[in-house]
């Protein structure tokens, strides 16, 4: 009988030297990683430059889809009279947001991977949010389980919910980058973060405060703070687990093909322009 909590071995592709400079699965599970808050925030801010356009294009697509899905769910869900039962009314009011949050998980993973590509100085595109739809089954199950467990944790004196919320923060990235199963990713994330839980909680608390403050002046500050948060998430993932890049090469081919098409179209336009110029010259 296999131990479902044991760190996976056969599913892990050996990491390159550049990755092991930072973190690895083995190091993460043993707590052998060090996080410096200032260094993490500084690097994330520096890497935010140049990636805001791609990330915001992804945010807009995801936001539009989420709003449409929520409206559709509210319209389609049967009207249930909860009467005076406040708890049931509260649960019913949260159903559309919970369902939509679970369904669009693959798109959210794409925004994280855009940040990973930027951090790795690799070509990236907002279209990466569609590159992980093939993992929707694993991601949806992981999202469903983590959501249920976190809600149960909050119901049990709140503190267990906070612990699990922070502990499961890297479940999706581990699925996208390492191709892990949902339970493997959940347990590896939770066990690794538990080693330095308060440090990770502190960093995410800081960026949460930054997001709240940036939203005050008509939300203008969110233009910078939301991409910054994505980059912080990516820097933490790299420092804790390293980057394996299970899907990196495939996505790079997508970007390369797009760049090739753009270059070809530009060359075609130039050739057409040269052709027209030569014809005009002959006419003259």
Order of helices and strands: HHHHHHHHHHHHH
Radius of gyration: 23 Å
| Low-confidence runs of at least 5 consecutive residues | 4-20, 267-273, 280-284
Average predicted confidence as pLDDT: 79
Backbone structural class = mainly alpha
Number of domain units = 1
| Biggest sheet details | none
Q: Which of globular, elongated, flat, extended, rod-shaped describes the shape?
A: globular
Helix content: over 70%
* Count of individual beta strands: 0
What separation lies between the terminal Cα atoms? 86 Å
Give the amount of beta strand, in percent.
under 5%
Total DSSP helices: 13
What does this structure look like?
There is one protein chain. The chain is mainly alpha-helical. It has one domain. Helices cover 72% and strands 0% of the residues. The longest helix is centred in the last third of the chain and has 36 residues, at 248-283. It starts with 16 loop residues before the first helix and ends with a helix. Residues 4-20, 267-273 and 280-284 have low confidence and may be disordered.
Write the layout of secondary structure elements.
Blueprint: H1 17-20, H2 25-29, H3 37-48, H4 52-76, H5 86-103, H6 105-119, H7 136-155, H8 159-167, H9 171-178, H10 182-195, H11 197-215, H12 222-241, H13 248-283
Helix pairs in contact: 3-12, 4-5, 4-6, 5-7, 6-9, 6-12, 7-8, 7-10, 9-10, 11-12
Characteristics of this structure?
mainly alpha; 0% strand; 284 residues; disordered C terminus
Describe what is shown at a glance.
The chain is 72% helix and 0% strand. It is built from 13 helices and no strands.
């Amino acid at each position: 009988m296999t131990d479902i909590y044991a760190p996976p071995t056969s599913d892990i592709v050996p990491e390159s030297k550049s990755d092991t400079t930072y973190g690895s699965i083995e190091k993460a599970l043993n707590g052998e990683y060090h996080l410096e808050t200032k260094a993490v925030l500084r690097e994330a801010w520096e890497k935010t430059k140049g990636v805001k356009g791609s990330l915001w294009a992804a945010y807009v697509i995801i936001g539009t889809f989420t709003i449409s899905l929520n409206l559709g769910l509210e319209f389609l869900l049967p009207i249930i009279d909860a009467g005076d039962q406040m708890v049931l009314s509260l649960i019913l009011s949260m159903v559309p947001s919970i369902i939509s949050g679970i369904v669009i998980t693959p798109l959210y993973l794409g925004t994280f991977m855009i940040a990973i590509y930027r951090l790795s100085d690799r070509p990236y595109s907002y279209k990466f949010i569609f590159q992980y739809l093939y993992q929707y089954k694993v991601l949806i199950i992981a999202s469903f389980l983590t959501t249920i467990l976190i809600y149960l944790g909050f119901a049990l004196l709140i503190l267990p919910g906070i612990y699990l919320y922070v502990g499961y923060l890297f479940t999706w990235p581990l699925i996208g980058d390492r191709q892990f199963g949902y339970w493997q990713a959940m347990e590896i994330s939770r066990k690794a973060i538990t080693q330095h839980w308060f440090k990770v909680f502190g960093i995410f608390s800081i960026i949460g405060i930054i997001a709240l403050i940036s939203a005050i002046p008509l939300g203008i500050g969110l233009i910078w703070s939301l991409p910054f948060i994505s980059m912080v998430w990516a820097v933490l993932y790299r420092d804790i687990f390293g980057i394996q890049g299970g899907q990196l090469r495939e996505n790079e081919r997508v970007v390369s093909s797009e760049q090739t098409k753009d270059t070809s179209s530009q060359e075609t336009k130039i050739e057409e322009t040269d052709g027209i110029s030569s014809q005009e010259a002959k006419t003259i």
